[in-house]
Design a protein that fits this description.
Number of domains: 3
CATH architecture of the largest domain: Alpha Horseshoe
Radius of gyration: 33 Å
Largest sheet: 2 strands, antiparallel
Distance between the termini: 124 Å
Strand order of the largest sheet: 1-2
CATH class of the largest domain: Mainly Alpha
Helix content: 55-70%
Order of helices and strands: HHHEEHHHHHHHHHHHHHHHHH
Shape: elongated
Structural class: mainly alpha
Strand content: under 5%
Number of strands: 2
Length: 412
């Protein structure tokens, strides 16, 4: 009897021990696998280690975590060589992805960090976000240069179509590939860093699209106080968040009144006006405000309207209302914009014919002739004025008047 009881206890202890060991093995399986994969990475070298890490990315959770930790360690490696140690030769890397040019010059340490950042991006590692932002800030002196039409450092590789070379630092690429979770950290980088870092942050937020919504206040601040290229990237990022651009209107209105070179913000405002009645109203108010607008602003407003080919009765009426403005440049750009829009009824044709006959500035007369020619047969009531212009002493005016007459009479 006692033997049977002892035997039962022994069996129970053995079963319990087996369960404990099985549970421990199950619990410790993932950590042990993770440490095993980490050891494999440490024992591998050079390209073999990078190839192994890439393989682990598509394996189980333990393998992915080991790869993530290895990439994080590589990203924390100092960018510069230790004091007194010779630096390895620089390596150039460049690629074009989705029409965006990515160019960088890396030292081999930077090349390793760039590979680690790319791996963390593939893993969508949110743990990497603070470290990537820290690396971006530390890389400030070596960040790719952003060119603009007004920089003295425009490079030969800048695209004439975009008028600037859009370059991603490897940290920037990784951050926008990680996705929406990076938006708050990028917003912080946009607020308090140097111009290069802010540009990189704005570029990443632009690529995030609507997911960058948490960074909208920081982007509006960059739109308000940034330089040419930062302002441009911030504006594009804000449009990607909200295509109506409504949030940008108050900021842009403040800029155009304060900036001695308001062409860029006026262009942004005119782009928004294509989809926002509120922006149209503001542009028309700026154009008509002869007393409150800073000197030189109103001609630029009229020019921006024509450049963006804004249409609608409100726009045409606003341009027509300044055809007798005392400022020669306001009249000139208003007439030029009307010629680009090729819109208007009999009242506008009569106003243009009056400018053609009476304007003291020959450039305004030339623009009026061009505008009438664009209207074609609808401008038939201006034929007498155009015939009078054929006798004007200015060669170019006579040429434009003759062309307008062909457009009006030849199409009948």
């Amino acid at each position: 009897m006692r033997r049977e009881r002892t035997r039962s206890v022994a069996i129970g202890v053995a079963v319990a021990g087996t369960c404990v060991l099985a549970t421990a093995a199950f619990v410790l399986r993932e950590p042990l696998l993770r440490e095993w994969h980490a050891l494999r990475l440490r024992l591998s070298g050079g390209n073999e280690a990078w190839a192994l890490a890439r393989t682990l990315e598509s394996s189980g959770p333990a393998a992915r975590e080991a790869a993530e930790r290895w990439y994080l360690d590589a990203l924390e490696e100092p960018s510069a060589a230790p004091a007194g140690a010779p630096e390895e030769p620089a390596i150039e890397r460049g690629e074009v992805r989705d029409g965006w040019q990515q160019v960088g010059f890396y030292f081999p340490r930077e090349e390793r960090k760039a590979k680690a950042a790319a791996g963390l991006a593939r893993l969508r590692s949110e743990r990497a976000i603070p470290l990537l932002v820290k690396s971006l800030i530390e890389a400030d002196p070596a960040l790719p240069v952003f060119d603009s039409p007004f920089d003295s450092s425009v490079s030969a590789g800048a695209s004439p179509a975009r008028q600037r070379l859009l370059c991603f630092h490897y940290t920037t690429s990784a951050l926008f590939e990680i996705g929406p979770a990076a938006a708050p950290a990028l917003a912080e980088a946009l607020e308090g860093q140097t111009a290069n870092v802010r540009l990189q942050a704005a570029l990443a937020l632009h690529r995030l699209g609507p997911a960058a919504a948490p960074a909208a206040p920081a982007l509006l601040a960059a739109l308000r106080d940034g330089g040419w290229t930062l302002r441009s990237e911030a504006f594009e990022a804000l449009l990607a968040i909200d295509p109506t651009g409504e949030a940008c209107v108050p900021v842009l209105l403040a800029i155009v009144r304060e900036d001695p070179r308001p062409d860029q913000p006026l262009g942004f405002l005119a782009r928004i006006a294509k989809r926002s009645p509120r922006a149209v109203e503001r542009l028309c108010s700026l154009l008509r405000d002869s007393e409150g607008s800073p000197p030189g602003l109103r001609p630029r407003v009229a020019e921006a309207i024509g450049d963006q080919k804004l249409v609608g009765d409100a726009i045409v009426n606003a341009l027509a209302s300044v055809l007798q403005d005392p400022d020669d440049m306001v009249r000139h750009h208003a007439v030029t914009s009307l010629s680009k829009l090729a819109a208007g009824g009999p009242e506008l044709v009569a106003a243009l014919a009056a400018r053609l006959r009476e304007d003291p500035h020959v450039g305004v007369r030339q623009a009026a002739a061009l505008a009438l020619g664009k209207l074609g047969p609808a401008a038939s009531q201006a034929v007498p004025a155009l015939r009078e212009a054929l006798r004007h002493e200015n060669d170019l005016l006579r040429e434009y008047a003759e062309s307008a007459l062909r457009s009006i009479e030849g199409a009948r």
